[in-house]
Amino acid sequence: MTRTVKIFDTTLRDGTQGEGVSLSVEDKLKIAQKLDALGVTYIEGGWPGSNNKDIEFFVRVKELELQHAKVTAFGSTRRKDSQAAQDPNLNRILEVGVSVATIFGKSWDFHVHTAIQTTLEENLAMIYDSVHYLKQNGLEVIYDAEHFFDGYKNNPDYALATIRKAEEAGADWVVLCDTNGGTLPHEITEIVSVVRQNLKAPIGIHAHNDCELGVANSLAAVMAGATQVQGTINGYGERCGNANLVSIIPNLQLKLKYEVISEEQIATLTSVARYVSEIANMHMPVNQPYVGAAAFAHKGGIHVSAILRNSSTYEHLKPELVGNKQRVLVSELAGQSNLVFKAQEMGLEFDTSNQQTKQLIEQIKEMEHQGYQFEGADATLELLIRNAYGQLEEIFTLESFKIMVAKNLNQPVISEAIVKIKVHGETCYNAAEGNGPVNALDNALRKSLMAYYPGIQNVHLSDYKVRVLDEKDATAGKVRVLIESSDFQNNWSTVGVSENIIEASWQALADSIRYALLNQTRSDNKPEEQKERLGLVNH
Amino acid sequence: MTRTVKIFDTTLRDGTQGEGVSLSVEDKLKIAQKLDALGVTYIEGGWPGSNNKDIEFFVRVKELELQHAKVTAFGSTRRKDSQAAQDPNLNRILEVGVSVATIFGKSWDFHVHTAIQTTLEENLAMIYDSVHYLKQNGLEVIYDAEHFFDGYKNNPDYALATIRKAEEAGADWVVLCDTNGGTLPHEITEIVSVVRQNLKAPIGIHAHNDCELGVANSLAAVMAGATQVQGTINGYGERCGNANLVSIIPNLQLKLKYEVISEEQIATLTSVARYVSEIANMHMPVNQPYVGAAAFAHKGGIHVSAILRNSSTYEHLKPELVGNKQRVLVSELAGQSNLVFKAQEMGLEFDTSNQQTKQLIEQIKEMEHQGYQFEGADATLELLIRNAYGQLEEIFTLESFKIMVAKNLNQPVISEAIVKIKVHGETCYNAAEGNGPVNALDNALRKSLMAYYPGIQNVHLSDYKVRVLDEKDATAGKVRVLIESSDFQNNWSTVGVSENIIEASWQALADSIRYALLNQTRSDNKPEEQKERLGLVNH
């Protein structure tokens, strides 16, 4: 039995069916390059028979000269009662010039009757003719058996007959699709085993996540003999998404010891997942398995002191294997051992007995008492630690700010901000509008800093959260604002607390910008890297 | 073999270890009521030995008189080389007055040496003594075998010895924990089967999601003989989260036909999941299995036309079974039936075929499209329904508002608001200060209304939540504000959506006040009750 599994990525086709996912041709080309470097075997680029954006992708992807991956185009079997050679959908696949075609056909008798409304015999002919036509034209053909598991449960003989037809016509792969995502792992195991006994062609699995079992179903299929896994980066896809390759790859390779991609490639998994989420403009959940910011984060004090002794006590895997890293969240629960760990991460000697450290711990305790929370605000914590050790350059200081928000009946609301800061000894005084008061503040602050730090234009706020702390009298109570920022390479989070939502937002905003510019200062001795980070060179 | 599975919810304990999850005692009490109504068997409320907020929860939860669920307190086995009866942690569990204790002990020899640094023998004694002491004191005892699967893989005999000790001491349940979340489903199947043969006590499973297999591992354990499943709502929890009960319950009950909760209870699953996400102020992923807004949404053209013919063609389950809805045919709103139900609650005849109703449904659809959500905003929904039926007296109308927030170096921040409204045909123009801009708005609005409705002084805002909707460009994106209000007898919630946080807050604030005064109008014919509600009589 082979221990090699091929990865078929459909982020660019099935992934774009996900709510909120929308990719331009440029986006798709960028992602294709990343997928190629990651080491996937197939990249499904789109459905040329269904839209022109996809055709443009197939034209332009050839210029990229991918190293490893084969690009494949998707389509359906020929229409009922017609000729494969005259089918526009199949011919479109030939026209775009791919070496691999992926076509889907019906396995479920109910669907043959209900969705395409033809006879069971004609459906078999549609499958045979379509695969045969593409093979005759020299393509590698992957046959996707849509609704295979539902079809098998309803009429096993017919479902098996459909994939035997595809095999007979020369299909290089038969991929069993759980299109509705409702099949359970033990059913997958059983059905894939039966197919294994009935087919010579290699088998693939295409799972969806409707029961939160997309990953488990993919593993079950591989363990029952499938050697191709279809899925998407971060599990993007229709409804609850496709099976998530970002979890499947390390499960197969690092846990089950299949050969999937190289050690070096799997170490880029975290950066690939985050890159694709940036390009797709999708929020990356902090708790995403393997690659999320919290995937190897530790909060409880008991855990942390054990982790410091031996990291495998509370980690199922070394985070570096997938390019992620351990993180310790500072919270009241955990205390001093967490801070020690944080400082070590920053390369600071952290002597718990010296005066600065004691003061810092007191300060953090006092701030937590006031409602600050550092577990989701690493950047603010780093600024505090650096400040305590005299390692924080004062980038700007606030003199004053003022915001105004005005609403008149039936008019759009107006938000303006005036910000006065000192930068390198000079006073900067600027005003700006915004979609809301915090956006106006942000815009006015940037206006002043732009002259000194043009790279700030690459820094953007990616999330903003507000929580009322004292619930007795809500809007008179304290609020905590968390801001997440990004410069396309790194993400960082900052926190502010005040009775006033605007002041709390200002604190988190100012820390975010300080942190971005601190990193800029720190990379002064690496001018090229700095330029690149700040977007001053073109790629 | 029993077909009944008990659900053990640890949202309030393990769930709060998740990054970004932070629950006040009030929040925990609200969630406990929802969990009770959902039909879980155990609610783990916290770790009384570790923090005082948890102790307050255990005191106050008794006043709720839960119908179904048993509340349990968490703790560890006694310290090494000491007496169980003198252990502060165990005694704290007895003091908080729960009928069920959940205590965890070590199963992994490596952890015994590394984390607690004692002998294997002493660890067995710690388990025996602790369970025995709690049993002697009349409690039901659930023993959580921490790291059981890792322990078993390293030293099966010792791992089995630890749980046999717990059983021998009288533990009512032995729960096998995959604490690091690194175990795969086929390993779970194998190890649970072995335990099943070695133990008489009923077995539970406690899984984590580090390999995106938390749900699959829970199912595998149940199929191998476990009859209790521990997990959290929406899978909140440390690192990648705990096993997600919101997916496990329907998988067990609707797919595998175990008896878990009633049909009526499972139909509230979507609303429970969304309620908890609102309370915890966590973003609810649209693609969350079973309960996400996109879980039964259909985008592809082929799917949609097939769905129109027969919905089971592209749906693995009827969404109504879990209280969710398809998003092609019906409005965005949580189904027309909810509207009918709401209207009936208000004593309105609700004819779904008349023109007003159709317009109302269109309006709600459009608002939901803009980002409104009525799940946690019943009062706003009631105002909309009353308005559509011409049963909403215009209490006040806005002419204009303006707010200013100013901060000068080392000075406290100042917030002022000017509000101009029309009340009973008269223009009222007032200014006020506040602790923040929304509080200033609230104060200025109240100043104007006070002369007409003195009872308004008893209305206060009890919670205020902000969520960014469009995560692409946070502060420039849309925000949804939820306000919860109270007049000491009733609570109600309102919602506002805008690109501008101040305007969104105004909408929710204005609705809150309108709703309070609407109730006042309605109780005109019951002057005593009205006086009492509005605080005009002293208690």
UniProtKB/TrEMBL annotation, chains A, B:
Tree of life domain: Bacteria
Broadest EC class assigned to this enzyme: transferase
Gene: cimA
UniProt pathway: Amino-acid biosynthesis; L-isoleucine biosynthesis; 2-oxobutanoate from pyruvate: step 1/3
CDD domains, A to Z: DRE_TIM_LeuA3 (cd07941)
EC number of this enzyme: 2.3.3.21
SMART domains listed in its UniProt record: LeuA_dimer (SM00917)
Catalytic activity: pyruvate + acetyl-CoA + H2O = (3R)-citramalate + CoA + H(+)
Pfam families documented for this protein: HCS_D2 (PF22617), HMGL-like (PF00682), LeuA_dimer (PF08502)
UniProt keyword rRNA processing, yes or no: no
InterPro entries linked to this entry: 2-isopropylmalate_synth_dimer, AIPM/Hcit_synth_CS, Aldolase_TIM, Citramal_synthase, LeuA/HCS_post-cat, LeuA_allosteric_dom_sf, PYR_CT
UniProt keyword Amino-acid biosynthesis present: yes
Gene3D superfamilies with a match to the protein in the record: 1.10.238.260, 3.30.160.270, Aldolase class I (3.20.20.70)
Similarity comment: Belongs to the alpha-IPM synthase/homocitrate synthase family.
Pyruvate carboxyltransferase domain boundaries: 5-267
TM stretches of this protein: none
Protein name: Citramalate synthase
Chain coiled-coil ranges: none
Record keywords: Amino-acid biosynthesis, Branched-chain amino acid biosynthesis, Isoleucine biosynthesis, Transferase
